[in-house]
Specification:
With 230 residues, the chain is of the alpha+beta class. The chain contains 5 helices and 5 strands; from the N terminus they run ααααβββββα. The chain starts with a helix and ends with a helix.
């Protein structure tokens, strides 16, 4: 039953994705419809942000900032062109005069907020999960991700107070996955074994987060510099 649900979800996703790409190609060739291009791009960001937000909430993970940014950026990319297209001449003039600076400021703030959020999350994790424990990967849980990619959630087994305990984050990814039987040093909170820190995988995930944040911030700075040049 679970496999069937994954197939249905993947089919719906592929249909939506192909339809969106096809729609973007079509409107790009129609001069009177080109204003819909950012709307289509915005719904991409909004949908991916919502998917990530739900996935992280369901796993009780920290670090929702990137999904929130995606949702806000997607909503803005959808709403602003609609307001501009159907708004009054005064509204259109105000948007034309301010949108470059607003876009640059928004991207810069989003990038800095993302980097700061990742750093704070890293610091909090280091303080909470500071007890080392040797964990052995005993199982791989898998599921299909966006576009049919296979994502993996490793399951570790550690010994706490003489008892074997299995740990998993319920976060499915393809970054830093250990092999079955591979031993890694985990950092845990002995009073809360629902989560843990694993330096190898966590480092890879942080790099992705910082890269996205820096890209947002750099785009914001470039946009602001361009708008300041008269």
């Amino acid at each position: 039953m679970k496999a069937l649900s994954y197939i249905v979800i993947s089919a719906v996703f592929l249909f939506w994705f192909a339809g969106s790409i096809g729609g973007m190609i079509y409107v790009s060739r129609q001069a009177e419809l080109q204003w819909l291009i950012p709307v289509i791009l915005g719904q991409f960001l909004l949908v991916f942000g919502i998917i990530g937000f739900i996935a992280i909430l369901s796993s009780h993970a920290k670090g929702l900032w990137i999904d929130v940014i995606a949702m806000l950026a997607g909503a803005g990319a959808i709403i602003l062109p609609l307001v501009y297209h159907y708004g009054s001449p005064e509204t259109q003039a105000a948007i034309e005069a301010n949108i470059p600076a607003l876009a640059g400021a928004g991207a810069l703030i989003a990038g800095l907020s993302g980097a700061l959020g990742a750093y704070i999350g890293q610091r909090r994790s280091a303080k909470k999960y500071c007890t080392p424990a040797q964990g052995v990967c005993v199982e791989h849980l898998t599921r299909l991700g966006s576009g049919g990619a296979v994502l993996t959630c490793p399951v570790y087994e550690i010994t706490v107070h003489g008892e074997a305990v299995r740990l998993q984050k319920n976060v499915f990814t393809n970054v830093g996955i250990p092999k079955i039987g591979e031993s890694r040093t985990l950092y845990i909170d002995e009073n809360d074994t629902e989560w843990y820190a694993e330096p190898i995988a966590d480092k890879g995930e942080r790099r992705i987060g910082y890269f996205i944040s820096i890209s947002f911030a750099a785009a914001g700075v470039v946009t602001l510099l361009m708008t300041s040049i008269k």
